[in-house]
Amino acid sequence: MLTEESYQTQYLDLNSIKELPESHTWTSLQDDCTDCLSNESESLPIIDLNDPDVLALVRHACETWGVLQVKNHGVSLRLLEDMEAATTKLFSLPIEQKLKVSLSSSNDISGYRLPKISPFFPKFMWREGFTIFGSPVEHAVKLWPQDYKPFCDLVEEYGKEMKNLAERLMWLMLKSLGITEEDINWSSLGGAAIQLNSYPVCPDPDRAMGLAEHTDSSLLTILYQNNTTGLQIFREGTGWLTVQPHTGVLVVNIGDLMHILSNGLYPSVLHRALVNRKQQRISVAYIYRPPANVLISPLPKLVDHYHLCLFRPITWTEYLELKSKHFTNTLSLIRISGSPNVVS
Ligand SMILES: C=C1C[C@]23C[C@H]1CC[C@H]2[C@@]12CCC[C@@](C)(C(=O)O1)[C@H]2[C@@H]3C(=O)O
Ligand SMILES: O=C(O)CCC(=O)C(=O)O
Ligand SMILES: [Fe+2]
């Protein structure tokens, strides 16, 4: 079992290893690396949030891709680049320093740790992650005893800006489905986790995995990626597609809870991150979630005789718990009807 404890006893520092260890060698990768980059018609749309047609564009992207890219989103390039620099700085600390902010308690999701999905895969991933949930102060003090404030201030600013954008995006998604403000009473109360990811240069990238395939448990996730390719999304009938980074453009994934709210109309996108031998890759995910104890269920306006209610109500807290036990099966476990659009 790939647990946090077994990993830490090895003190593996990915930033200094010169050969891919057995524990990080993925054997089934070779044939599944289809990269359909050259196929122009398959490229993920970049939506200008000031476009007068924004609702239709969002709806189309959400329905067909489960993910979109946005520009003119109002978050300054300066803030995105500062966050990237802070992330690079954090992961370049000595491994002993980083381990001081890991494993605070098994219930705590904050800190330097393996991805939650690690136990579902046979090998470790070529990635380091730091999750921020609530205030980062306690951890920042351990990482930079003399100089923790700039990091905390930056995280706070990033959190504020991303919350505005996440709410705006959520409303674009919901309005594109005909949902109005009266239909939802918790929308401004949502919270988030901020996930910092680093994928160090890798001696054998074809046999390593940065972050294995998963869907996010969020309503939506806003992802910043530095100028290094690696993010891929899975497209039915096509395979894995690389999402090329563009300066200032943010990737927005539909999460499992939006899939539930939309009564299955918007799919939560399956995605993963690959690694390379030349450049460290950095990404920052803003994982936007509803208030912890609000019951999330398909919106009544999206349920009728032709569109049966597909999922039972569930809170974010319960959803995360179920997902940490059942991973990819979680959505089907809370499903209550058969296939969409079928009248019983
Ligand atoms: C708030 C969340 C959402 C989590 C779990 C918890 C904290 C960390 C998040 C991630 C971040 C990395 C990918 C993922 C799949 C993982 O392993 O940890 C995410 C997961 C999810 O979206 O399910
Ligand atoms: O690094 C990436 O591009 C993907 C990160 C991701 O999927 C996540 O943090 O949930
Ligand atoms: Fe993700």
Give a description of the structure:
This protein has a single domain (24-333), classed as Sandwich (Jelly Rolls). Helix 3 crosses helix 6. 36% of the residues are buried. The chain contains nine helices and twelve strands. It has 344 residues and is an alpha+beta fold. The mean pLDDT is 91. Fe (ii) ion is lined by residues 214, 216, 221, 271, 285.
Count structural domains.
1
Question: How much strand content do the residues show?
Answer: 15-25%
Series of secondary-structure elements, N-terminal to C-terminal: HEHEHHEEHHEEEEEEHEEHH
**What is the tally of helical segments?**
9
The poorly predicted ranges are none
Question: What is the CATH superfamily label?
Answer: B-lactam Antibiotic, Isopenicillin N Synthase, Chain
Rough shape? globular
Main β-sheet description? 8 strands, mixed
Summarize the structure.
The chain has 344 residues and is α+β, with helices and mostly antiparallel strands. The protein is built from 9 helices and 12 strands. It has helices at 4-10, 54-64, 77-91, 95-99, 137-143, 149-175, 256-261, 316-326, 330-333; strands at residues 46-48, 67-71, 111-112, 128-132, 191-199, 211-214, 220-225, 231-235, 239-242, 250-254, 271-273, 281-289.
Supply database-style keywords.
344 residues; Jelly Rolls; binds fe (ii) ion; binds Gibberellin A9; alpha+beta; eight-stranded mixed β-sheet; 27% helix; binds 2-oxoglutaric acid
Task: Please write out the topology.
Layout: H1 4-10, E1 46-48, H2 54-64, E2 67-71, H3 77-91, H4 95-99, E3 111-112, E4 128-132, H5 137-143, H6 149-175, E5 191-199, E6 211-214, E7 220-225, E8 231-235, E9 239-242, E10 250-254, H7 256-261, E11 271-273, E12 281-289, H8 316-326, H9 330-333
Parallel strand pairs: 1-2
Antiparallel strand pairs: 2-10, 3-4, 4-5, 5-12, 6-11, 7-10, 7-12, 8-9, 8-11
The protein binds Gibberellin A9, 2-oxoglutaric acid and fe (ii) ion (FE2).
Pathway: Plant hormone biosynthesis; gibberellin biosynthesis; Hormone biosynthesis
GO biological process, one term: gibberellin biosynthetic process
InterPro entries: DIOX_N, IPNS-like_FE2OG_OXY, IPNS-like_sf, Iron_ascorbate_oxido_reductase, Oxoglu/Fe-dep_dioxygenase_dom
